[in-house]
Design brief:
The protein is mainly alpha-helical. Helices cover about 40% and strands about 5% of the residues. It contains 6 helices and 2 strands, in the order H-H-H-E-E-H-H-H. It has a two-stranded antiparallel ribbon with strand order 1-2.
Length: about 160
């Protein structure tokens, strides 16, 4: 199964909470209480998001955390990158270097296409989109031949 880390998941929850109340400055303890994430974890996530430039922080009386820019200008890809690094399902074409099999791999190009599609989806989804209710449940893709014994041209 492909998953983002728990910290990345928590970061999207924290960012969603801040986006839903974007006109307010929030303390770490308030964010922890509102999201149900433990305070030490919330603090760690908030600090990482500040380092990534997605949040601003202010110290002292009335200080706390606020989005660095409007939620519509923050992509899910930016949040994911701040915890996971470069987005990619495989090493094919990654910025870290070449896979040892890359020179003889016959499916490399298609993995790169998949990586690009996943990245494009994460870039297209903004934080503003994330705090809106999902329009409809997403259904899994069906196989081309759903009926047993039915063979379509071009399918095995």
């Amino acid at each position: 199964m492909l998953r983002v880390s728990k910290l990345t998941d928590y970061a999207t929850v924290v960012m969603g909470h801040l986006a839903a109340t974007a006109d307010q400055v929030h303390s770490a303890s308030e964010v922890a209480q509102a999201t149900g994430i433990a305070l030490p974890t919330t603090s760690k996530v908030l600090k990482a998001l500040v380092r990534a430039g997605l949040l601003r922080s202010a110290r002292g009386q009335g200080g706390g955390y606020i989005l660095a820019r409007p939620a519509a200008q923050i992509s899910v890809a930016q949040i994911v990158r701040s915890f996971e690094g470069p987005v990619g399902l495989t090493e094919c074409g990654s910025s870290e270097g070449l896979c040892v099999q890359e020179s003889v791999c016959s499916i490399r190009g298609n993995w790169q296409r998949i990586n690009q599609l996943v990245l494009a989806a994460l870039e297209a989804m903004t934080l503003a989109d994330m705090i809106r209710p999902a329009p409809t449940p997403i259904r899994p893709l069906a196989r081309p031949s759903a009926q047993p014994g039915l063979i379509r041209a071009g399918t095995p």
